[in-house]
Each structure stands twice: as C-alpha cells, then as structure tokens.
Amino acid sequence: MSRGGKGNKANLPTKTCPVCGRPFSWRRKWARDWPQVIYCSERCRRARGRV
C-alpha cells in the first residue's frame, strides 16, 4: 500500500462540534490528541462561551 495515494475518508472517526453542531472528522494534525479535540475549528473554540 502506498502512502501517496488517496485514502478512504469514509472510515475516519468523527465527532460533533458542541458549538455549531456540525460533524467533523479526524485530521492527521490531531493524531496524537484526538481524544482531547472538542471543537471543529478555532472559530468555534473562541465562540464556546457566547453560545
């Protein structure tokens, strides 16, 4: 299996953002701390107290 090709994104784990309610999927940059990821974006993280 080559690492350069496209993977099957349907099998990635997903979570729901508590601020906007949208689902978001795992990203490689979150690989080490996926259990601690709560918000889908920096914008939602900043807006967490206003909603």
Automatic annotation (TrEMBL):
| Molecular function (Gene Ontology), one example | zinc ion binding
- InterPro entries per the UniProt record, alphabetical: UCP037205, Znf_NHR/GATA
Top-level lineage group: Bacteria
**A GO biological process this protein is involved in?**
regulation of DNA-templated transcription
Q: In its UniProt entry, what is this protein called?
A: DUF2256 domain-containing protein
Organism (species): Alcanivorax hongdengensis A-11-3
Q: What is the lineage of its organism?
A: Bacteria, Pseudomonadati, Pseudomonadota, Gammaproteobacteria, Oceanospirillales
